[in-house]
Description:
This protein is α/β, with parallel strands linked by helices. About 40% of the residues lie in helices and about 25% in strands.
Amino acid sequence: MIKRDELTKFIYQTIGEGLMTKALEKDEVANGVQFLGGEEVKKVALGVSLNEDWLKEAAKAGAQYCVFHHGFDTRTWKSRFPTFGQKRLRLMVKNNFTIAGFHYTLDAHPTLGNNATIIRELGAEIDQPLYDEWGYTATFNHPQDVKELQQKCARLFSHDILAVLSGPEKVTTIGVVSGAGKPAMAEIAEMEAKGVELYISGETSEWLIHQMKESEINYFCGGHYATEVFGVQELGKSIKKNYQDKLEVEFIDIPNPI
């Protein structure tokens, strides 16, 4: 068991002051503690997205401190909480949870982040920031067969890959932006300027299929949720390594096909 505020301090230090500060400039979504629960923490639960199903599972698991990539959605309409928001709040209060969300920070972190982890698992090395610093370009030491990378991504994400095979059959430079990551004109131009031959993200739009095809950039979509399970688990590993037997750490998986 440890103190809640000690754990918060460790998490902030692990992510880094510079990245936490940058998140305040770049992101309207939570990057930090949103809701304070009990002062004593025996168990940390990790999740991609805060929702009712996840909170119920965390309560069953006996967690006190909850860490997400997508934290509590605080948006209202004319100061009215939607039904889903009320359900989530009731569970948070009833179970005395501390709630922390790390959105930009767990995309952009150069070692713990979703994108950094995907790049590392694919065997490439981070090169330059991409997509207004939400992701990265990366390079392989040797050209990789794009169809083999498609299969590798399917295994890594445990998700079907929507693939637009419109670029070179062998690629050296990739771009990775987990989650939504749907590029607009500026991001497509940035990929062209940085020599991206394969772009990997989670979601797409109808028009993007043709834009990427005509840009002659290979394009993989592996699911918003599926491409963002990595950062929060990497953060959890750091928490467990630091506190060892003082804390239980569990990832609660509530899969989402999108």
